[in-house]
């Protein structure tokens, strides 16, 4: 699974890296311990609301981590939907609509995972790639808050989830699941809102190659979301 990650790139870096055309929402500060229910930056493509006949635009936008399906009665469900299994995402009621129509990229410097030791304690690791930014596959959704009137600017709540897959390579011994990492060659099709056939979406997911990630042990300070500073990314051997 993916329950914590680091997001350290500026808006300017994300705009350049993903070639976005529009930015929505204020810039978020770097976070070295992103946790569920927090605001996060995502990349998505969407037709401008005021120009329904225009071409979709790639945008950088702030959403909340933890998916709320449009049919959810309240916000409680979001805490259970921070991840979506890539093998079944086009079939599960909570995800199938957004998998067909509302796919996103969630940029990260890397993510944290905990490995059980022989003593049954959990050892945190940070996993990262060769680039400064990992493109984690995600979904986004718009949820209408029933407590707000239709004309309230906060009526629609934007949320997201991270897709996961079985972990192999260097990550498999740490945890049996890992985020679905998209190579650059997949970005255009993944974000394309015109691609809505669930069979084609699932085929694309199934064809994503295994990532090459490097793990290293980090401090147990990352266990608490209250801790959030660059030292969390330091290898444990160097911080002792």
> Helical segment tally?
5
Amino- and carboxy-terminal Cα gap: 28 Å
Which geometry do the CA atoms define?
globular
Helix content: 10-25%
Overall average residue pLDDT: 93
DSSP, total strands = 13
- Specify the biggest β-sheet: 8 strands, mixed
Radius of gyration based on Cα positions: 18 Å
Roughly what fraction of the amino acids lie in strands? 25-35%
**Based on helices, strands and strand pairing, what is the structural class?**
alpha+beta
Stretches where pLDDT falls below 50 for ≥5 residues?
none
Q: How do the SSEs run, as a string of H and E? A: EHEEEEEHEEEEEEHHEH
Characterize the structure shown.
With 240 residues, this protein is an alpha+beta fold. It contains 5 helices and 13 strands. It has helices spanning 11-18, 96-101, 184-191, 198-206, 236-239, and strands at 5-7, 22-24, 31-34, 39-46, 57-65, 83-85, 103-108, 110-116, 122-128, 134-144, 156-166, 177-179, 214-217. The strands form 2 sheets. Strands 2, 4, 5, 6, 7, 10, 11 and 12 form an 8-stranded mixed beta sheet that branches. The chain has a 5-stranded antiparallel beta sheet with strand order 3-1-8-9-13, with no helix packed on it. The protein is globular. The two termini are 28 Å apart. 35% of the residues are buried.
